[in-house]
Write a structure and sequence with these properties.
Number of helices of chain B: 14
Number of strands of chain A: 2
Oligomer: heterotrimer
Shape of chain B: globular
Strand order of the largest sheet of chain B: 1-2
Structural class of chain B: mainly alpha
Largest sheet of chain B: 2 strands, antiparallel
Chains: A mainly alpha (about 325), B mainly alpha (about 325), C alpha/beta (about 525)
Distance between the termini of chain B: 20 Å
Helix content of chain B: over 70%
Largest interface: A-B, 38 and 38 residues
Order of helices and strands of chain A: HHHHEHEHHHHHHH
Distance between the termini of chain A: 71 Å
């Protein structure tokens, strides 16, 4: 393979590798948002997922169990969000912020309690690549698309699955209607509450998994605040993807590319001070928002709680 | 008597949170009573403890107000962290560049520069909202991350203090130091600035026409717009004011406490400021009191970690629980009507 | 011959917070009849039917269907029992097609694909049977109101209902569409359904209903057949002795409003067009004048530019081209705040969303819009003493039930919230009032009160722009009526030429021959 070919291959491969937390967290945001629940706790939930996922992996020696427990933790946060907003009718932003604090605090507390302070950071095995026979031999595309870890495959399949579920099944038709007009859905016998609970819980699980990915794939260990804003960026990406599974997948890919590039330049050395390069992903997010906010088609009742007996004049 | 009855829900929330955390401590093998003793009384045991509490109160009150003022108009400013840091950068920059100026000139310049810098940082998010309708929660948070990089750049750049192990700048000129009120233990006059700001905010929102417009914009933006109020200007205005207040918190840390820009000087103040703002249910006048209570917990928490090895994150959990219980008690009150 | 009841509701009680909505109400529906449920706003008609449909839960009472007691706890139960409801504000998913809206929530033959051909065939058959013509693949947001209503009806028919409730169904229809609806209802009755027709309009009830039940303030007043009913009887039943019918505006025939003085034009619009932020042309070339003392009515089906017209006159939205003058002074670029200072008053149509502050105090609400003027404030500082004094005066004059100026607005009941907004609108001296659906949601005595206030206001020489989707209201008190269609004024009629069907034609887009 020529030098150019291998550079492109490495870059693309790394991009697909990096898009996973964004895809998972954004799809989780999108799912609950489609029924009207606007989750803003992603950063906290991802941190909990990372922390819990790492600790359980470390203790049990199995990444799979760690990931599952991280998903359960994320699902629990989703359940709490649903309960406080859908049942108790509290403001969604306020509940989301509170969960963000708790998640952040918990994620720092747990490692101290379980592992304490150590001289060298404890490590877990990182996720192995799973090459698909034959397909992975294709030049460039092979290693990029077919020689990745299992969660890369999962993210892509998940996106396709969500698209089909939302737009081609009766369940998806009902789910979307809850976010577009809960009163209309309710009047037709659709259970607004249970739809919101289900999407919040599953959404939380996906976000927890997104967090668990970070120690499992990048560093092999958990460090405080390691998400570095990816949770918040995921929200912007959801808008960028017009709250729709396939555009979100492509948006995440685009974003991961920027992240990889900025890191490349930081390491490779350039005349721009590295701190400014590290700002690139965040600035890119802002630029993305400039182009999509106000134009993105958002579920009509996003962020609004529904109360059947509330009367309007 | 009914006035006192209004505080019952808050009291009960605090007690309930303490009970839950007490159980958690006991399960983890610590002595809850000793822990609470340390948490609650460290502030009052020694003059130093009390001064430390006051010193923490300043940035906590200011960052909380940075959240509650925009909240009055319905906007969520999550960017106090970045605004405080940029305010600190502004203050340090002026303090270092003009370090030979006399106090009568340098101090006001430092304060002004810091507040303007913080206001500018908030203006970016406010402008993104005004012009492109970008949700301010997202923009302010992203700007926070950008400000971390900026601080790192400043603290490791041309003004770096080579003797320091941690990224820090050289000290600002002595003219920029906030005068001390008490020498030992050290209490600087930043506390006077903070009190002035808290009172000014209260006066503004309850007595002025612009304050009225701010409040009704938050209560119902559509209705306000229909009745002649320029709500988009209100949003912008409230975000910039909140950011300036956060900038002042940064100024005080530089000019009063450290006399230089230290990476990480914002500590957990902005996060706690948010929590305090939420606990105060957005009421500006309640903020100073809630902030004082949290200061006590924070001072006590650090002492608790030092003396009986309880991780300091427990205090954050307690604070988050208090917040949750307060929010819950709101629901219960609503249900009872 | 006494027929068996198909539906019986007994001793139904319902209280919301502190307000008693229904008190021991009884309700009977016979097979194959159209029953009119008549009463003013707040009488309890919609509440009663929402209970039947499972959207609300009664505090006590029984529901008996075809002789069997049933429990209905949600719309799903109601649908299962064969009860369907067409709400006043259609409950449709705007960006879904007609087909998707109809099958939403029901079982489909192929749930894991988007193939609805089986369902489509069934619906087409229903359309045949009931004489309804609709394009199933159209997105409902592109359809006119009358057609959207037919979609609502189809939703119920598709679920095989035997009882159909229609809540104020003629609200958004032009006279021609009302006729078409009545035809559809007659076909449905022939096919075996029973229909409950909720309305506050006497004319309708007397023209289409077989029997009439009147509610007032949450209680039964009278039930009778159409043969036995008369105008006066029904009015008395709806209003009781709350109103002096002799002095009322609604129930006395007036000699026509006084001639408008030909002197000054209070408001003059010339060639006004408006393109909004989404690049949609909302208003095109609007020109008209309102004279001193004139009530200028604007008719039209909702969504044809009425709100945009009101907002442009108030300065909430800027004009893209054209001129607006007020008393011969051009004000095209004047902002809302200054127009209010000049004497513009706006009563928006969605009063709760656009006119009320739930989380602020009653005093805050009463001064909204006037807060920066004397005597409420001076040099940027608010004089709360004056505010409270003024508020107390308004509270007593407009009969607002509240503990005082400091009470939080959200604590007030619906009727009192309306009174706050009426107080605010009429207690300031004004030279131009823009009222959009001012009586929507009000009970009959309050509606009459508003009409009296409007006439009083006109008699001071002020001008009124009365935008309303209630044609009867416009016919009652306007001097002239303009009709809007798709953002244009398609005709202006003077009082001598007021004729419902002509206006209906204009409302559906036919341009007037001679303006």
């Amino acid at each position: 393979m020529s030098g150019l070919e291998s550079t492109i291959t490495d870059f693309l491969k790394l991009t697909f590798l990096s898009m996973v937390p964004f895809v998972l967290a954004s799809q989780g945001t999108m799912l609950s948002g489609r029924t009207g629940v606007f989750n803003v706790a992603q950063e906290g939930i991802m941190l909990v997922g990372a922390s819990v996922g790492f600790l359980v992996s470390y203790i049990t020696g199995s990444n799979l169990i760690g990931a599952l427990v991280a998903m359960a933790a994320g699902g629990l946060f989703g359940l709490i969000l649903a309960y406080f907003t859908t049942t108790l009718k509290m403001d969604q932003f306020v509940v989301g912020l509170a969960l963000f604090f708790i998640g952040t605090g918990l994620s720092s507390l747990l490692p101290k309690l379980v592992i304490g302070v150590t001289l060298t950071p404890p490590l877990v095995k990182t996720l192995p690549e799973i090459p698909i026979p034959l397909l992975s031999q294709i030049p460039i595309i092979g290693p990029v698309l077919f020689k990745q870890n299992i969660l890369v495959y999962f993210s892509i399949l998940l996106s396709v699955f969500l698209w089909y579920m939302l737009y081609r099944t009766n369940m998806g038709l009902r789910m979307r209607s809850v976010g577009e007009n809960p009163k209309a859905s309710d009047a037709l016998g659709i259970n607004v509450s249970s739809n919101r609970y289900i999407t919040s819980i599953i959404g939380g699980m996906l976000i927890g998994l997104a967090g668990a990915y970070l120690p499992m794939v990048y560093t092999g260990t958990f460090t405080d605040l390691m998400t570095k804003g990816r949770g918040w960026i995921a929200i912007a990406l959801t808008f960028f993807g017009a709250w729709s599974p396939l555009p979100i997948l492509f948006g995440s890919l685009f974003f991961a590319a920027i992240e990889v590039l900025s890191f490349r330049f930081q390491v490779g050395g350039s005349f721009i001070p590295y701190q400014f390069l590290s700002m690139l992903p965040y600035i890119a997010t802002i630029v993305v928002m400039i182009f999509t906010f106000g134009k993105s088609r958002v579920p009509a009742f996003l962020g609004q709680n529904y109360d059947r007996e509330r009367r309007t004049l | 008597m009914t006035q006192i009855r209004k505080f019952f829900p808050y009291l009960i929330s605090v007690l309930a949170a303490f009970v839950v955390v007490g159980i958690l401590l006991w399960v983890l093998g610590f002595n809850p009573l000793k822990a609470y003793q340390t948490i609650l009384f460290t502030s009052f045991r020694t003059p130093n403890g009390f001064i430390q509490t006051l010193l923490k109160w300043i940035p906590l009150t200011l960052t909380a107000l940075a959240f509650t003022v925009p909240l009055s108009s319905g906007k969520f400013n999550i960017g106090a962290e970045g605004q405080m840091l940029v305010g600190a950068i502004g203050a340090a920059a002026v303090g270092i560049l003009f370090k030979d100026l006399p106090p009568a000139l340098l101090l006001p310049l430092v304060i002004l520069a810091g507040m303007l810098a913080g206001a500018f940082w908030g203006l970016i998010a406010a402008w993104l909202l005004y012009q492109f309708n970008i949700n301010e929660i997202l923009s302010t948070v992203l700007l926070n991350f950008i400000s971390f990089a900026l601080v790192d750049f400043v603290a490791t750049g041309p003004w770096r203090d080579p003797a320091a192990g941690h990224p820090t700048t050289v000290p600002i000129g002595a003219g920029g130091f906030l005068p001390m009120l008490v020498k030992n233990p050290p209490l600087h006059s930043g506390i006077i600035l903070a009190i002035i700001v808290a009172v000014a905010v209260y006066f503004f929102t309850s007595k002025t026409t612009s304050g009225y417009e701010l409040v009704v914009t938050g209560a119902n933006p559509r209705a306000s717009k229909v009745h002649g109020i320029n709500i988009r200007k209100m949003f912008l205005f409230s975000l910039v004011i909140g950011a300036a207040v956060a900038g002042l918190a940064g100024v005080i840390e530089v000019a009063g406490t450290h006399h230089r820009l230290i990476e990480g000087l914002h500590s957990n103040f902005p996060t706690l400021g948010l929590i305090i703002g939420l606990m105060a249910r957005g009421k500006n006048q309640a903020v100073p009191f809630v902030a004082f209570f949290i200061s006590i917990l924070e001072v006590g928490g650090s002492a608790m970690q030092r003396t009986i090895m309880v991780p300091v994150q427990i205090v954050l959990i307690a604070e988050a629980l208090i917040l949750i219980f307060i929010l819950l008690s709101d629901i219960i009150k609503r249900r009872q009507k | 011959m006494e027929q068996e009841n198909v539906l019986l509701m007994q001793q139904v009680n319902k209280t919301f917070d502190k307000v008693i909505a229904l008190s021991n109400v009884n309700f009977e529906l016979k097979p194959k009849e159209i029953l009119g449920l008549l009463g003013g706003n707040g009488a309890g008609k919609t509440t009663l039917m929402n209970i039947l449909y499972g959207l609300y839960r009664a505090d006590s009472g029984k529901v008996i269907l075809k002789g069997q007691p049933v429990t209905i706890l949600s719309p799903r139960d109601a649908i299962r029992h064969g009860i369907g409801m067409v709400h006043q504000h259609f409950l449709q998913i705007n960006n879904y097609t007609v087909l998707e809206n109809i099958i939403l929530g029901s079982r489909v033959s192929r749930p894991l694909t988007a193939n609805y051909s089986v369902e489509e065939a069934a619906i087409k058959e229903l359309c045949e049977r009931f004489g309804l013509e609709i394009d199933l693949s159209a997105r409902v947001e592109t359809l006119p109101m009358g057609t959207r209503q037919k979609v609502e009806i189809l939703k119920a028919l598709y679920r095989g209902v035997s009882i159909l409730i229609l809540d104020e169904p003629t609200t958004n229809l032009i006279p021609q569409e009302v006729d078409s609806l009545f035809e559809t209802l007659k076909i449905m009755v022939r096919e075996g359904l029973s229909i409950v027709f909720i309305t506050h309009k006497l004319r309708e009830v007397l023209s289409i209903c077989d029997r009439i039940t009147v509610l007032r303030e949450g209680k039964n007043v009278i039930s009778l057949t159409r043969k036995d009913a008369s105008d006066e009887m029904l009015v008395r039943a709806m209003v009781g002795d709350k109103m002096d019918l002799e002095k009322s505006v609604m129930f006395t025939s007036r000699e026509g409003t006084g001639a408008v003085s030909a002197s000054q034009d209070v408001l003059h619009l010339e060639g006004v067009s408006m393109i909004d932020q989404q690049k949609i042309q909302e208003l095109t070339d609007i020109s008209f004048s309102i004279g001193s003392g004139e009530i200028f009515g604007v008719a039209g089906v909702a969504g044809n530019g009425q709100r945009e017209l009101a907002e442009v006159v108030m300065g909430i939205q800027p004009v893209t081209s054209g001129k607006i003058s007020f008393n011969d002074q051009e004000i095209t670029t004047l902002n809302t705040k200054d127009r209010i200072a000049e004497g513009f008053v706006y009563v928006p149509e969605d009063r709760l969303a656009d006119g009320f502050l739930n989380k602020a105090s009653v005093a805050h609400n009463l001064i909204l819009g006037y807060h920066n003027l004397e005597p409420y404030s001076r040099k940027g500082i608010i004089n709360w003493k004056n505010v409270n004094e003024s508020s107390r005066k308004m509270i007593s004059e407009y009969n607002i039930k509240t503990t005082g100026p400091d009470e939080i607005g959200g604590n007030l009941s619906g009727g009192n919230i309306q009174r706050v907004m009426i107080a605010r609108a009429f207690s300031q001296p004004s030279r131009l009032m823009i009222a959009h659906n001012p009586t929507r949601g009000l009970d009959i005595p309050s509606m009459d009160f508003v009409y009296q206030k409007l006439l009083e206001h006109a008699s001071t020489g002020a001008g009124t722009l009365l935008i309303s989707e209630d044609l009867d209201e416009l016919l009652l008190i306007s001097n002239r009526i303009a009709v809007m269609y798709r953002g244009k004024v398609v005709g202006i009629l003077p009082r001598e030429k007021f004729e419902k069907y002509e206006i209906g034609r204009l409302m559906s887009g036919y341009e007037q021959e001679s303006k």
